[in-house]
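Section 4.2 – Deliverable D4.2 (structural model, holo form)

The reporting period included a commitment to supply a predicted holo structure for the target in complex with flavin-adenine dinucleotide. Inputs used:
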Amino acid sequence: MSLYEVDVERHDRVLEMTRDFVKKEIPPELVRETDRNDQYPLDLIKKLCAVGLMGVNVPEEFGGMGGDVIDVMLMYEEISKRMPVLSWAAGNITLYGNEILLVNGNREQQEKYLPKLLNGEMLFCLAITEPDAGSDAANIKTRAVLQNGTYLINGNKMFISGAGVSDITVTMTRTAESRYKGITSFLVDTKSEGYSAKSIKKLGYNGSDTCEVYYENVEVKADAIVGGEAGLNNGWNQMMNTLNSERLALSACALGIAQAAVDDILSFAKEHFKFGAILNQDIQHTIVEMATEVEAARQLAYYAARKETKGQECIKETSMSKYYTTETAKKVVATGLKILGEYGALEAVDMQRYLRDVLILSVGGGTTQIQKNIVAKTLGM
Ligand SMILES: Cc1cc2nc3c(=O)[nH]c(=O)nc-3n(C[C@H](O)[C@H](O)[C@H](O)COP(=O)(O)OP(=O)(O)OC[C@H]3O[C@@H](n4cnc5c(N)ncnc54)[C@H](O)[C@@H]3O)c2cc1C
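Output (C-alpha cells):
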C-alpha cells in the first residue's frame, strides 16, 4: 500500500518536481553558504514559484496545483533533505500565506493575495508569539483599538519567521478582554508607518530571518481583518484551524533532516568501516536503528496526514507526529555525530548543521512539551 494512499498520481508528480528542483537548483555548497551568511533564500523561493511548487496547496481556480497537506509534506521533506531552511522559508508562502487565506480568509482577500503569493511577488509571515506569550499563546498583549473607523495596533512580537522580508504580517492582536474570544488577526502591510522588524541571530535555521517586530500606532482598516467582519474576535479559532497543517509540515521538515542524517552516515560508514572483512556489527546495528526510527516516525506522520486529508479528527495524531518526528530527528542526528567522530566537528560536514536545525525544530510551531500536553488531554488526562 502506498504511504500516501490517496491521490497517488499528484503526490508522485509533486515528489518528482521537487526532486528535480533540488537536484538542479540546490548544490550542497549553496546550502552551506546560506547557513554561513544567514541570508534569506529569496532567489530560491522565487524559483520555487516559477516552477509552480509554491501553489502546491492552492486550488486550481487560483492557479495552484490543487494539492493537499500530503503534497506539502512530500515537498517539505524532499527539500529539507538538502536545505531545511528553504522549507522554513517556503512557509512564508504555503503556510502563512496560502493556508491562512484559504482556511480563514474571505473571497476578496483570497483573490487579492493568492495570485501574488504564487508568482513570488509577495511573502506573508505569522506573528503570534510575544515576550510573554509563547507556549501560552492566548496571553498576547499586542492591542488593536478601534478609533474613528481605523484600528491602531501597538505591541511587540518575538521570533517571527520572515518578518524582515515579508510584505504582510498576519498579526494576532487583542481586541477584547476575553482570553480566547478577544483575539483578532489582521493582515498588516509591513510598509505601514510604525511597523518595524529587527533580525535575531540564532543557533540554527540560519537564513529564516527570525525577527522581533514592533508596532507603534500602526493603522489598519477593518477590511484587513482575516476573514473580514466575521474574523473579529475569532482569531483564536482561526489559528486552531491551521495548526494541524503546520504541525504536519514541520514533521516533514524533521523527517527530511533525519533522512539526510541516515543517508550521510550510510555513505560515511560504507567508506570508513570495512563491513564484511572486519564486520563492525555495533555500527551496523546503530545505523539500522536510525533508519528504522526514521521510518517509524514517517509512518506516524503520514498516518496523521491521511486523517487530516479525510477530514477526520486528528489533533492527537498531528501533535504526536510533531513531537515524535522532531525528537526522533534530534536523536538520529546526535547518533550520526557520534559515529562521525572527529569529522562531525568539521564545519564542512553537514551533520553539525542538522543538529543546530533540529534543536530549533522542536521549539517552533509548539514545543515538544506542549504537543505532549495536547496529547495528554486527548487521552483524558
Ligand atoms: C526558529 C523559530 C521560529 C519561530 N517562528 C515563529 C513565527 O513565525 N511566528 C510566531 O508567532 N512564533 C514563532 N516562533 C515562536 C515559537 O512558536 C515559540 O518559541 C514557542 O511556541 C515556544 O515559546 P517560548 O519560546 O516563548 O517558550 P516558553 O513558552 O517560554 O517555554 C519555555 C519552556 O517551557 C516549556 N513549557 C512552557 N509551558 C509549558 C507547559 N504548560 N507544560 C510543559 N512545559 C511547558 C516549553 O516547552 C519550553 O521548553 C518561532 C520560534 C523559533 C525558535
